[in-house]
Design brief:
This protein is mostly beta strands. It has 8 domains: 74 residues, Immunoglobulin-like (Sandwich); 87 residues, Immunoglobulin-like, CATH 2.60.40; 79 residues, Immunoglobulin-like; 81 residues, Sandwich (Immunoglobulin-like), CATH 2.60.40; 77 residues, Sandwich (Immunoglobulin-like), CATH 2.60.40.1120; 85 residues, Immunoglobulins (Immunoglobulin-like), CATH 2.60.40; 121 residues, Chondroitinase Ac, Chain A, domain 3; 101 residues, Immunoglobulin-like (Sandwich). 0% of the residues lie in helices and 54% in strands. The protein contains no helices and 66 strands. Strands 42, 45, 48, 49, 52, 53, 55, 56 and 59 form a 9-stranded mixed sheet that branches. Strands 32, 35, 37, 39 and 40 form a 5-stranded mixed sheet that branches. Strands 50-51-54-58-57 form a 5-stranded antiparallel sheet, with no helix packed on it.
Length: 741
Amino acid sequence: GRILDESGVPLDQVQITASTSNDSFFTETGLDGSFVVSLRSGTYRVTAEKPGYAKAVLSESISVASGEEKTLPDYTLKRLRGNIAGEVRQKTGGQALPETKILARSGTGSAYQALSDNSGKFQFTDAAGRFILLPGRYTLIASKAGFRADTLKDVAVQANQTTQGQFLLEKNLGEIRGTVVAAGSPVEGATITATYVSSGVYYTAISAADGTFAIRQIPVGSYEVRVARSGYTSPPPQTVATGAVLQLELVKNDGRIHGVVSDRETGQPVRGARVYADDSHGNNGKDYTDSQGRYEISELPKVNPYTVTVTKSGYQAVRQENLSVTADTRLDVQLSRLYGNISGHVLGEDQQPMAGVTVRASSGQNVFVDTTGSQGTFSFVHVPAGQYTLTASKVGFQSDPVQQIVSLWQGGSVENVDFTMKEAKAAQIEIVGPELLSNQSKQQYTFVALTADKRSASIAPQWSVDLPAAVDSLTATGLLDPKDQYIGPLTLILTDTYSGVSGKKSLSVLQPLTPRSAAVSVSDQLGAELTLADSTVAENVAIQLRKPVIPPAQRATRSFQVLGDVYQFSPENLKLLKPATLSLPVPEGASGDLVIGRWDLQWLEWKPLESSRLQGKQLEVEIEQLGRFAVLGLAEPLSLKEIELKPNPFSPQVGPLRIRYVVTSNQTTSPMVTIKIYNMVGDLVRNLVSGEPQPRGENVVTWDGTTDHGRMARNGRYVLQLKVRDLSGEKEALKTFVLIK
């Protein structure tokens, strides 16, 4: 048959008894709960029993004949268990004691264990909450680190019942005290650690100025005691019982190793060398040499000899063994530098050797350069050990790979460091950097050069500016330093001298000002100058000068005409705390009554500054705020002047006749203009302009040689008639020219 527990799990070691009035046969169940009893023929009573379970009768009477086998139905034994429950508290104060170990030991030697929870309660149950104690009498022992154990004897446990029990534990406390000394003198600040041998819990104390210490209120028992302090060697740990009075001996670490590390070849100090000292007993120290090659390792124990190792990348390591250390041990070391060789080839895209390629090998401050010859080879011989970055460059080509890293830390030779050069001629160049820059600082500019298919291009860069007078310097690497007195627009130009491709970037050079700025005079180096007094602004600003191109309608008023450039000083309408002097150049050819005008943002017109004064070829005026300024000429009465016909003679097959003229008027900004062409007998050939308003100043009209009927005019001499009209009347001018086909 087979025996199971109440959960349907097979029970092993169940004793099976088959008995008659005269005979009894025994067996036990196996791991799968099954059993087989071999017996004589007869009628038997079959029972099953196992400690902790109720004895069961499997069959009151079962007959078995000789050679017959019978199987009983599976049988379930009922569990017989009891429980002990209670709580553990501290005798003084009554606080609950969690994590207290409760051991239940029966008279038969069986032992069970429980652990109190956070409220100090305990019971003997399994994870499913079922009782686990076999019925009987038990001795209970409650124990916890730092407390005296408590015992409950002869506690009866009955099946399916809970017996109550309570423990009251007393603290079991003691102390360890003593003195920490070194060479007979007390040591302050030493850390003493006492580790409870039975639990691993540790307690610490710090020695006082007189070297004394005390570790109090610790559980009674055996402790491993250690002492440590920075700068001292500790004695071996010792095991003592509570109540011990100790004297702990430290040995002061005043050993010192110092010296200089130098290069054996040059005798020069080696900076950054690592010096490491170790006595193989857990004591060590290290230092790195300074710029003078000096090092110092201090606070070393002087008990055992040391091994000193000196290492530095690119040098052979030096090892000094069995060095006895005193309070002043000097050890100077010379390092031997390692050397190596690097070589390789440079090929073109056709895999043929390429000459004229510059190969650069760089490692820190060590830079070596070689140029390939007709065989495309390069080499670097006897170079200091290190990690080198190799690049290959030639204008108009890009290397593949871009760079190679070669390790020569251990010297030796590295060969076949090869590059392939691919054509990379620039098709476009973009200058990278800020558009606004101060005239008080330098600015670095870089570039991006691309091929026609957008690959990175290799160029021979040449930097320049459109106004050299505006800069103090412009380096070959693109570092721009504007003149301190320059303000205004500036065009930065980068030209590839190999491909001829250029890139440009429009810049604006600013003048920074603070409330404490001294007086300053800035200029566009073309005649415009602004002189500012000291402390002329209330807050930090940067003054900018632009020269905007304004529409023709803004270049004239009824009474004035803008001559030359327009100068816009920003921030526009910034009010100055003190007047500034603005000086503008008189445009070439300008004459008559000239003034400096300021653009009125409210009325959208030019307002002349009547205080303008002429100083040679400059106009000056005092201003109290920034804005847009220009030289204004007083509008002249109605006239036509500076009439030019070019070319004369002209051929329509080569190009048109260009008719240039200047219109003046003090009645309107756009007088009415009429332009007609006549032959020499007075017939109208072409009406070019018929009573159209045109702006004052220079105007240009062209004639392609066709008549009003769309036919080409004949060869010959012609008369050009120009008329201009305003409220004051009309003016006329005649000019002759020749047409030749």
